[in-house]
Design goal:
single chain; alpha/beta; Arylsulfatase, C-terminal domain; 8-stranded mixed β-sheet; 5-stranded mixed β-sheet; 20 strands
Amino acid sequence: MGKRTNIVFFFTDDQRFDTIHALGNMEISTPHIDQLVQDGISFTHAHIPCGTSGAVCMPSRAMLHTGRTLFHLDREGQKIPDEHITLGETLQKNGYRCFGTGKWHNGSASYARSFTDGGEIMFGGMGDHWNVPCYSFDPEGKYRETKFVKTPFSSNEVTMRQCDHITCGKHSSELFADATISFIERYDDSRPFFIYLSFMAPHDPRTMPEKFLDMYRNGKVSLPPNFRDEHEFDYGIRDIRDEVLAPYPRTGDDTRRQLAEYYAMITHLDNEIGRVVSALKKKGEYDNTIFILAGDNGLALGQHGLFGKQSCYEHSVRVPLVFAGPGIPKGERSDSFCYLLDIYPTICELLGIGIPATVEGKSLAGVMNGKKKSEREILYFAYTENIRAVKNRRYKLIEYVGTEKTPCRKTQLFDLQNDPWEKTNLADNDSCSAVIGELRKEMLRLRDEWDDMKNPLGRKFWDRMQMK
């Protein structure tokens, strides 16, 4: 039996689903991601189920590494309990060396369980891309808990002060790519490897080498069709951190500037992906490697008058997802509904290894080999105590109750087939009452299937909704 296939996982931070040139965005340059698209299969309807806190990426990452659903995590995904078997643990048990670098937002103990190797480990949510507080890999898994303190000089109000080292003046995307390349170049083992490269980009603060920003200084970055100067109603997030990154009312000039910076960060991280791929080719491992590219959540950046990811609109819950490599079809696109938590069992099935009983996701391997059209036909979304939503192949229903401080009872219905930008709310259209009724039944069914009522936030939402 030959050597088992390597896995290289590129995970991006705040990258929206529609930011890849090869998948239709003609304003962005992503040549290396485009090559993965050409060499593999792109899941154009990959999602997150939103989140249980404003830091949407925390549960998103916990779901990725455990394959568990949103309300079957621990403490909103802040940490991964020992009984939740991580992807890295499963791969180690099946003979893999597991290397991790970059952002890890789910506690140091679960990182130590998941990886045998690593470098430039960032235990936190965000920070200055040019001065990243990192830890060196500890083979004994002893990592001090990162501490956050308020400082008068931090643009983000909190700064990490406890770490092993800070590499000043090197951008995070380059820092993590360099650590990965060093691991590849030094690798001398008959065992296959799993590389998890978790970028901080394109999360704000949106900074990058100037030459990448120069590519977007031509004024041609377009405003999205659903741009608004402010969201049409306040459902309790108007003044959270992500939403005050732009002035009220939103302006076209500021939004275009931020979109240009966002695109420049993605082009820069794409460049670093290219460097890693080149290192694999030089090492002779490229043809024996499965590549995965995914993002932890989307981002509004002006759509619907929002700038963050704390919503159930398409721009926030849809993410990029690409698989490429041995045994994977080339140049294909699938509109199969899926979540990030489906990646874990997919990797297991592609490698022919057992899926742990703690994993709740659904493998996409059957979709890849053409045996199935889709694993899911309807999706469930939840944001804290504020919002619940369902989406089928044509419609999305979103129900808002806001918060105790900002109550907001609002229903939205969008025809995604004819209105993909979610511009026209059909909820008050009498002809759509039957559609709303059916989707509400599905929402209640999925509420129970996902154990939403067993978490405090879910109980608050459903108590205010008064739906039975």
